[in-house]
Amino acid sequence: MRLRVVHGKKGAKNMRRKFWALLCAGVLLANGACAEMAAQTDQGEIYIGENNQLTMEGAAAPLEEALATRILGAEGNVVYYLLLGNMAENGTPAYTLAQMDVSTLETTVVAENVLLAAFQPGENGVFYVTAGAPEQIQAVPTTLAGHSVDVAIERLQATQQGLVVTAGGVSSLYLTGIGLLSIPEEEQGMTYTICGDRFEALQSPDGALFIRHVGESDMLLLSESVTAISYDEVAGILYCVAPQEGKYTLYQYDPILRTVTEAGVLMDIPSGRMLAHAGVVYVLAPEGTLNAYTVATRQYEQIASLQAYALENPSLDYAAGNVLVYDAKMDADLFVTAVAVEAGAAQTPAQPSATEYTELRRGDEGTAVVRLQQRLIDLKYLVDEADGIFGPLTEEAVELLQGDLGLKEDGVASAEFQKRIFTTSIPALQLYDTLEEGDRGTNVRKMQQRLRDKQYLADAADGIFGARTEEAVRVYQAQNGFEETGVADEPMLTHLYSSAAPVCNTYIELQSGDSGTVVKNLNARLRELYYTSATASSNYTSDTVAAVKRFQKQLGERETGVATPELQRKLYSEYAPQYEGYTDHFAGETDERILSAQLQLSSLGYLRPDALTGTLDDLTAQAIRDFQYENNLNVDGILGANTQQALFAQNVSSAPSFLTDAQKSAMLGCVRTMLAGDWSDYDIISLLQQRLISLNYLSDKVTTSGIYNRLTYEAVKRLQLDRDLIDLSVSTANLGVADEKAVEALMDPAATPYTGTPAYYYN
Question: Are the C-beta atoms of 405 and 454 separated by less than 8 Å?
């Protein structure tokens, strides 16, 4: 690898003079726009270069003379970017938002006095906030906008889920046409980095790094503390630096294998000083040297000295074969220089002989996988890059080709399979042949899978072009400017299989048997509004059907169990009503209705008042079982619909009392004289219950609740009768009451276990 510095010190000085003239005149840049300094268009890479002017790869001159501060993103030949703007009235720096068609160099000013802006890849547009309307979410195209909040918006962030809007210190998810939706508390304050189309990285304010894959809600904790992260778009790998045993270790995350591996030891790198590209990690050291660390060979070398620039707050980006260096001055990222990397021609691996083929399957890596992938790409069965990683797309492509060859579709590339596809003539899959209703085959299945990936279809990719596939094609055509024929012709298919194919931005009809991300989102929303208690899966199950019917019934609509687009608009609306009835809640769940049930259980004397957590934990389940037992309900500890109806009934009665105030006071006083320390009343009762369990008077299936309930009463009776602690011929008044004799017997360390049946609900 040979490297050289392209721009020298003189060019940097001239650029700075122009910027300082503007900055001293009172024009400042805002920090609100979270974006890159480069983007990819169909014409080539666009980046902010010399004199902070918009520059295109291979162009002889800048695209325009205006001074750019951020490139927000690009779609096709249209690039969105920010220019230096006028100061807002309150002294806040503002931008001018512009867009350019780089094929014609036609520039349009979208808005002025812009405070915040973010490009949302899934929407293929820019959301922004202006100084004149700081509570209003605006957008280009304008169809994406139209929502206001109560206070000034503080931050906009593009994520795989949608646009995250922060206002009043609280972050919410903004969905076009729906409004703001709440996000989990643990996600508040996160910084998002979209990593290709597979996953995103989330970094908490304290430096913890999480991973979330597209279509999944769970976050994977990568590290408790990181100092820098960078996503390698070419390799599809996320790199991060984290402290480990006194050293700063470089880790790499593979989103296909979902593995984290150590990639070497580096210095402590602040955020922005690290850049990953094509398997090389570029590091800007504190002393001002730019270094390259090749991950595969673990070689670390200096490639440029930038000490003469006296960098204060530098950052790196990559475009057109250059490592771009910027430095923040008075909130403006100023272009400093570029370091070009010229790599030699890659060696083409030799074609293996028939005896060299080895079985390949999902998870394998290496040059053999590269050869297999390239052959599948040539045959049009794989629409992806030959990255040497046998992932799900490669597995699916192998399955499709196996089916067309009449082989077992197991997704495993055996030695015999590879020999056949490398040494015999196989016709390429006609991906772009026109398809219409009634057609069947692999090309239909590929189209269906692509429509599913982009959320236009939730039906199975079965290779049969039916009515629902036709409707998905129509929706795709309508959204992307094609004539709505329902026939997938070559222009539409070419667009569908390209990187420009957008995610569906409207609702599609969903019904029983469907699956995918849109179904998972539907299940999550139904659960959020209490129409179901089932886990938000990606499948449209009988639970989903029942939940949709509940929603339809509450709206006064026909109960079909089918989620039509119109029904989904109502469901995702910020005005969608919560379910007025009851659904089951199980152990471990947390929500407002569980907290309401806890409050009611506490007011009735079944749950101690210091146990109001909002979570259906062991103490709450015990209180529910006690309530169910006393009210002749099925004793299962589940907060089911029948239990909730009884719990909130007008004539519900309080828990029975088994101790008078005097008896309880005497019992507590007795224990306190025997034990040192500060014990609460509930702790003392829990201690007695635990002792009853250990001596087999009380079933070990019972949680020590701190409430003197019926089971505790029955267990104390067993103790008294077993040890002749009470004379029934005299009085039964103290039967079941933990008096002084009972307490002393329980606390006796030499006490032997009860041989009878312990107290429980069914004995």
Answer: no
Determine the Cα angle at 62 with ends 58 and 66, to 5°: 155
Q: Per the structure block, which two tokens stand in for 122?
A: 């899934």
Tracing tokens 């083929």 back to the chain, one arrives at 357
Portion of the chain with pLDDT greater than 90, in percent = 57
Number of H helices, E strands in the chain: 17, 30
pLDDT tens profile 35-91: 478 988 888 889 998 888 899 887 778 888 888 989 999 988 899 999 987 766 666
Residue 287 three-state SS: coil
Residue 324, burial from CB neighbour count under 10 angstroms (0-12, 13-18, 19+)? buried
Phi, psi of 101 (to 5 degrees): -90, 105
Q: Confidence band (pLDDT; 50, 70, 90) for 334?
A: confident
Contacts of 241 (CB under 8 A, 6+ apart): 226, 227, 228, 229, 248, 249, 250, 251, 266, 268, 269, 274
Whether 443 shows a pLDDT value over 80: the answer reads yes
Q: CA quadruple 580, 581, 584, 586: dihedral positive or negative? A: positive
Q: Which residues contact 59 (CB under 8 A, 6 or more apart)?
A: none
pTM of the model: 0.46
Read out DSSP for 186-246?
GGTT-EEEEETTTEEEEE-TTS-EEEEETT----EEEES--SEEEEETTTTEEEEEEEETT
- Supply the DSSP string of 504-564, one letter for each residue: P-S---B-TT-BSHHHHHHHHHHHHTTS--S---SB--HHHHHHHHHHHHHHT------B-
Distance CA 270, CA 82 (A): 25
Give the confidence band of 290 by pLDDT, cuts at 50, 70, 90: very high
Residues 460-493, buried b or exposed e (16+ Cβ, 10 A)? bbebbbeebbbbbbbbbbeeeebeeebbbbeebb
Quickly state the pLDDT bin for 554 (edges 50, 70, 90).
very high
- Largest alpha-carbon pair distance within the chain? 110
The bridge status of strand 209-213 relative to strand 289-294 is unpaired
Q: In the numeric block, which tokens belong to residue 435?
A: 């398809």
497 closest CA partner among 451, 465, 542, 463: 451
629: its two tokens: 């037992």
